[in-house]
TrEMBL record:
<keyword id="KW-0732">Signal</keyword>
<protein>
    <recommendedName>
        <fullName>Tetratricopeptide repeat protein</fullName>
    </recommendedName>
</protein>
<dbReference type="Pfam" id="PF13181">
    <property type="entry name" value="TPR_8"/>
</dbReference>
<feature type="signal peptide">
    <location>
        <begin position="1"/>
        <end position="19"/>
    </location>
</feature>
<keyword id="KW-0802">TPR repeat</keyword>
<feature type="repeat" description="TPR">
    <location>
        <begin position="498"/>
        <end position="531"/>
    </location>
</feature>
<dbReference type="InterPro" id="IPR011990">
    <property type="entry name" value="TPR-like_helical_dom_sf"/>
</dbReference>
<dbReference type="InterPro" id="IPR019734">
    <property type="entry name" value="TPR_rpt"/>
</dbReference>
Length: 589
């Protein structure tokens, strides 16, 4: 069993589930498919440039292309922009330049390239028009927007956001009725997109002080569990302003239960529950337009592992620099794509007064860790814990401390969270599992075993818990048959897991059934050929079946995979001379 790998995977899942930023409800893969535009404007998969006029321009193009491939959007943006500004009629170069500039969060450069593009390019490409339309709205130039938001050649995503921008521009001019009709028209008949548009419609109705109509629209969304975070928060504020605090609290509580943690929702819920008199949020045209880009982009990001949503977060922040939800998600996308430095700058721009400041601290600490600034990350984590942060941030920090191998501090933080949960009569299996792994690493096996058993009781079908507890028993020579049964159950739930297959093979090794051990460990090595622990176990099993040359070959391979783990390296080097020290356990336990 690969213990550290399992711990990291489960803690990451816990962090995302318990401390994620606000987003649309999960509509499933259909939403992602609907947003995949037939255009190539917003990806690097655009056509090659029609022509590159000079050697210098061709050189800039190649440098930009390489920068894109090596995750350097700033360099790519500058180089592509240079070519695009000298050849304003090449659609593919313009698309690449605008995309890269927005991905680098350089809206001014994206705007400059978009302004220079000729009419043919603008007619063929939606992203430059989206950039121009956003700038026009943020500048109050509503009259120029309709010419930029034509949607005949746009795919579903661009049709949605361009139509939304046109609607908010009409709203900015005071044409509320046409604005609302334009919103609904932009979604077409697609039920997924219409839910998004209905949320925007409700926000527009509130912005226009059409509170009765807004309550009707929001009531339909509430019944269908289709409220976005922004709409749910605005709905609750509107209800509370009318003396319906209990209904407001229920709306927010249901959102948190059905969708997940949202800093803005949690903050508003706590303030209404405390009796605070909150004003109704009535959006400006620019704020509404920003949300109309952010919300579908956030929904897309929830089902995507690439950095494409960052392009739209950049535009949303141009429209509303105070949209800290977009800033937090943009930072997350930057960090996941390896741009930790940019993520750190983005997170530090979220002010203390923002509801997103708390989660930004956790994100910032993780970004510092991924950037290699472990000392600063540890200092921030310890400082944050000293201020007794709220539950979800404490989980993020405990997770980080585990990765930094500050095990005692992490154990204390997890224990505080678990104690608080127990006082409320609730329990989360992931927290017990995380604390169990820490107790085990610290040599506190009785406490670790108790935590694993509690995690198993809370979630009897967790492959991670079943495998970890089963392996720990077998590896210690405890409850061997029960341990093997748990591992087999875990493998039935996740049959393609190399780590769990390794656990079963190692269990047979400990039982002295070396032929079965070889069988399962060879399978594990096929599934995960680059994990040193599996390769090491396979070497041990080969040795015990008399296949000494093959055993040494596997141990040599394991040595190449261990990097700087000096203790494990010494153990394997010793085995290459004398064979494995571990002997098979008995079945008497």
């Amino acid at each position: 069993m690969i213990k550290k790998r399992h711990l990291s995977a489960v803690l990451t899942a816990a962090s995302v589930f318990l401390a994620g930023c606000s987003s649309m409800p999960d509509y499933g893969l259909a939403l992602s498919e609907r947003f995949q535009s037939s255009e190539t404007a917003a990806t690097e998969k655009v056509a090659e440039p029609e022509a590159v006029a000079s050697t210098n321009e061709f050189s800039d193009f190649l440098i930009a292309r390489y920068a894109s491939l090596t995750n350097d959007p700033q360099q790519a943006a500058q180089r592509y922009a240079g070519v695009a500004l000298s050849d304003t009629g090449d659609t593919s170069i313009t698309e690449r330049a605008v995309f890269s500039a927005l991905l680098a969060n350089d809206f001014d450069l994206a705007l400059s390239v978009s302004k220079s593009a000729d009419e043919t390019v603008l007619g063929q490409s939606s992203l430059p028009r989206l950039t121009l339309a956003a700038h026009a709205i943020s500048s109050g130039d509503y009259d120029s927007v309709p010419a930029l938001t034509t949607r005949e050649r746009s795919g579903p995503f661009y049709a949605l956001v361009l139509g939304s921008l046109e609607a908010w521009a009409l709203f900015g001019k005071g044409d509320v009725g046409p604005a609302e009709l334009t919103l609904l028209d932009a979604a077409g008949e697609d039920p997924y997109l219409r839910d998004i548009m209905l949320n925007s419609l409700a926000l527009m109705e509130i912005a226009a002080s059409q509170d009765v109509q807004a309550l009707e629209t929001l009531g339909v969304l509430e019944e269908n569990l289709a409220l976005t975070a922004a709409a749910a928060e605005s709905y609750a504020r509107l209800l509370a302003s009318r003396g319906e605090e209990a209904h407001a609290i229920n709306v927010l509580s249901v959102y948190l239960e059905q969708v997940g943690y949202s800093p803005a929702i949690e903050d508003t819920l706590n303030r209404i529950a405390a009796g605070e008199d909150l004003p109704v949020k009535r959006l400006s045209a620019a704020e509404g337009a920003a949300l109309s880009i952010y919300v579908p982009a956030a929904a897309l990001a929830a089902q995507s592992t690439d950095d494409l949503p960052g392009v739209y977060y950049s535009i949303a922040l141009e429209l509303d620099p105070q949209l800290h939800a977009a800033r937090a998600l943009f930072a997350d996308a930057l960090d996941r794509s390896g741009r930790s430095g940019d993520a750190i700058d983005m997170l530090r721009a979220i002010p203390d007064a923002s509801p997103y400041h708390v989660t930004a601290i956790g994100q910032l600490a993780w970004a510092l860790h991924r950037a290699g600034n472990d000392e600063e990350a540890l200092s921030l984590a310890i400082e944050t814990l000293s201020e007794d942060p709220e539950r979800d941030l404490k989980i993020q920090i405990a997770d980080l401390l585990t990765s930094l191998e500050a095990d005692e501090e992490a154990l204390t933080a997890f224990t505080e969270v678990i104690s608080g949960d127990e006082a409320l009569g609730v329990g989360d299996w992931r927290l017990y599992y995380a604390r169990g792994t820490l107790n085990e690493r610290l040599g506190n096996w009785p406490d670790a075993e108790t935590d694993f058993l509690t995690a198993k009781a809370l979630n009897p079908s967790s492959p991670e818990v079943l495998n970890h507890l089963g392996y720990s028993w077998v590896d210690r020579g405890l409850h061997l048959e029960r341990g093997m049964d748990l591992i087999r159950q875990a493998l039935s739930l996740r049959p393609n897991s190399g780590a769990i297959t390794d656990s079963l093979g190692w269990g047979y090794y400990k039982l002295g059934d070396f032929d079965q051990a070889v069988y399962y460990l060879e399978l594990a090595a096929e599934i995960e050929p680059d994990l040193a622990e599996i390769i090491d176990h396979l070497g041990d099993a080969y040795w015990m079946t008399g296949r000494r040359t093959e055993a040494r070959f596997q141990w040599e391979k394991a040595l190449t995979l261990l990097n700087d783990d000096e203790q494990e390296i010494r153990k394997i080097e010793r085995k290459m001379l004398t064979g494995p020290e571990t002997q098979a356990a008995s079945r008497d336990n």
